Amino acid sequence: MRKNTVRPTDIKLHQKSRILEVTFGEGSRFEFPAEYLRVYSPSAEVRGHGPGQEVLQVNKESVNIVGIEPVGSYAVLLRFDDGHDTGIYSWDLLYNLGVNQDRLWKEYISRLEQAGYKRN
Fold first, then answer.
1. Which of 22, 24, 80, 103 has a Cα-to-Cα distance from 70 of 20 to 30 A?
2. Which string of DSSP letters, residue by residue, matches the chain?
3. Per-residue pLDDT of the chain (120 residues; tens, 9 = 90+)
4. 120 located within any domain
């Protein structure tokens, strides 16, 4: 964890809407769709073991988070209902996913379209 890491002060899972709401200490608040967190999982299964090895995640429109477990004082492990449970989301990663959510989501949709995949 970096010295200037912004820590969350509140994490709420809204299972009906499939949203993870995270509020950080400096006041920012992000609403993360479960699909977004699943397709940007930090796991090797999604990111690969190096640049260019990323695996495009498809058919994740209906995925939901079924569990949140703390990992030390620096992260959470998210468990998804599709069985994925190997991504550890550090506070820095969650904050960056929040700050860059619009851009990252557009990039994901673009990659899906380039692969010929149509979202439901």
1. 103
2. --TTPPPEEEEEEETTTTEEEEEETTS-EEEEEHHHHHHT--SHHHH-SSTT------S-TT--EEEEEEETTTEEEEEETTS----EEEHHHHHHHHHTHHHHHHHHHHHHHHTT----
3. 566 789 999 999 999 999 999 999 999 999 999 999 999 999 998 988 888 889 999 999 999 999 999 999 999 999 999 999 999 999 999 999 999 999 999 999 999 999 999 887
4. no
Provide the β-strand partners of residue 90.
Answer: 75
Give residue 96's domain range.
8-114
**pTM over 0.90, yes/no:** yes
How many other β-carbons are positioned within 10 Å of the β-carbon of residue 111? Answer: 15
Q: Provide the number of structural domains found in the chain.
A: 1
> Which sign, positive or negative, has the C-alpha torsion 36, 37, 40, 46?
negative
Which CATH number goes with the domain that contains 90?
Answer: 3.30.2020.30
